[in-house]
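re: ur question from earlier - yeah i can do the single chain one, its not a big deal. heres the input i used so u can compare w yours
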Amino acid sequence: MLAPAGVLLITFLLIPIGLTFGLAFTNARLISPRPAEFIGVDNFVRLFEDDTFWASLRNTIIFAAVIVPVQSACALGLALLVNVKMRGTNFFRTVYFLPVVTSMVVVSMLWLFMYQKNGLINQVLTTFGIEGPDWLGDPKTALLAIILMSAWQAMGFHMVIWLSGLQTIPGELYEAAELDGAGTWEKFRYVTWPGLRATRTFILITITISAFALFTQVNIMTQGGPLDSTSTVVLMAVRTGFQQQQTGYASAISLVFFVLVLAVTLVNRYLTRDKDAR
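and the output i got, formated as tokens:
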């Protein structure tokens, strides 16, 4: 019974990881008559001297640093709004979750048209007397535009996770808090937030990992431009490996990315650990 899952795991996870580790120290190319040669750490030296890599890393870190608190906070706010027993709640839950089930490619193309100079967003701003910028054509606003779109698209998914955590908190705790004279903020601070400890750990880790893996939105909307203002580490690895066919160099980028995400995840897990656990 374990064989089908084991074969898939080995074929599409363990073997690619092993090949990445091996190819990162070679000059392998995707299509080349010459066999790959071992070149040591030359790929890593070249990578750390590449200005595009540092720009991509900076953009990735900025994206993650903004999207993690914004997306998790907004999703929690939506979860609190729909965690009530009233007519029409299921409708709003469906509306908020709808962007999640829509393909990221479709969402990116839709927002690409909305972000155009004469697109819907600037048309709305014009009605208020505001001249909208060239969202995706200006290095100052391109990354911000992608952050806003990404936060909106995935917000519903994390809303559902927050909602599941809210529904595990016993109602007796809120009743006891009301008897003690606790207000809305006190109930959230001393009942709701501590009760969401495991949920928020899971959400913070998943959002962080997905934020560092930013690719589809950038690939469709800006291709890393303008002036590498939206380039990311994953986009750089894919572009290097498949467009430039430098498989060894792309593997080195992927290996550095793996170490980076692993380190961030471990730090995130440490900071959100249960300090009372024994």
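Residues 51-82 form the longest helix (32 residues). not sure if urs matches, ping me
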